[in-house]
Amino acid sequence: MERRDRVLWLTIDRPERRNALNWSVVRGLRAALADAKADPDVAVVVLTGAGDQAFCAGADLGTMGDAPEDGARFLDQHDARGELAGLFQEMWQLGKPTVARVQGWAVAGGFGLALACDLVVASERARFGATEIRVGLWPFMVTVPMVRSMGPKTALDLMLTGRIVEAAEGQRLGFVSRVVAHEDLDASLEELVGTLAGHSPAVTKLGRDAFYAVLDMGSAQALAHLHAMLTLTNQTEDAAEGMAAFLEKRPPSWRGR
Q1: Rounded to whole angstroms, what are the CA distances from 252 to 7, 227, 231, 236, 245?
Q2: Which of 46, 45, 58, 54 lies closest to 15, judged by CA?
Q3: Quick check: 150 and 131 in contact, CB under 8 A?
Q4: Do 36 and 45 contact (CB within 8 A), yes or no?
Q5: What is the per-residue pLDDT across 73-82, written as a single tens digit (0 to 9) for each?
Q6: Residue 204 three-state SS
Q7: Start-end of H helices in the chain
Q8: Residues 18, 140: Cα–Cα separation, whole Å
Q9: Is the distance from CB of 19 to CB of 13 less than 8 angstroms?
Q10: d(Cα 33, Cα 91) in Å, to the nearest integer?
Q11: Does 19 lie in the same domain as 53?
Q12: Active-site entry in 69, 83, 132, 166
């Protein structure tokens, strides 16, 4: 975990295991996100993996096949397997932009983790896949971030085949936001997160929350919700400041309220 100005960088630091998830990693990410949500000085969260080989290779099957505590009962094991679902929910409810920095492999649960971020910035060397079917499993939890990031039949194709997708194809399919040369990845990330951190935190939160709220709504319900959010956002100090700054031809000074 590293703070760079108003940006929090979270790094899965298990390069010897291609940054595979274990219980400690998942719980650590959830704790870090809770801290970021409560910290007004954090404007953006970047998620990445250590080293140059992998963003995250999914669950470490050697350690995540059972519940975190030895001898746990069946229902305890069931609840423990919901840790990843809880992480996804907390990412969507963070109220602040999240960006996946994908420099290598992002497969299985790691694929889902990248897609649960708002934006995915990928090196040209990045590779993605819902590969669970290859080992007799299914990407159950990963289904939700997948269908929120691409067409349902495209997601099903990837789940049924387990095939690997290169970064350029991921961008064509809609789940990669930007593809950059490997050597330009960090510079591109810095530019992007600088832009995100420079916007009104209040309006960013309201708009981002509204985006995720309407994803699962019908059109009439969604429009009613967005109508209310438009009125609410226009009552914020930041909206007034933004319009005043535009008319006065000066940079805005955000107050976050």
Answers
A1: 20, 25, 21, 14, 5
A2: 54
A3: no
A4: yes
A5: 777 777 777 8
A6: helix
A7: 23-38, 74-80, 83-92, 109-115, 143-147, 152-161, 167-173, 185-197, 201-214, 219-234, 237-248
A8: 21
A9: yes
A10: 7
A11: yes
A12: 132
Measured CA to CA, the distance from residue 47 to residue 85 in angstroms comes to 17
From the centroid of its chain, how far is CA 227? 26
Q: Is residue 256 part of a domain?
A: no
Encoded tokens for 110: 């790691």
Q: Is 132 a catalytic residue?
A: yes
Residue 182 covered by a domain: yes
Tokens of 134: 């290859």
Integer angstrom CA distances of residue 162 from 101, 130, 133, 236: 22, 5, 6, 46
Residues 174-188 pLDDT 10s: 999 999 999 999 999
Taking residues 51-55, report their average pLDDT: 96
User: If residue 95 lies in a helix (H) or strand (E), which one and from where to where?
Assistant: none
93-112: average pLDDT: 97
Whether 253 is in a domain gets the answer no
- Residues 18, 43: one domain? yes
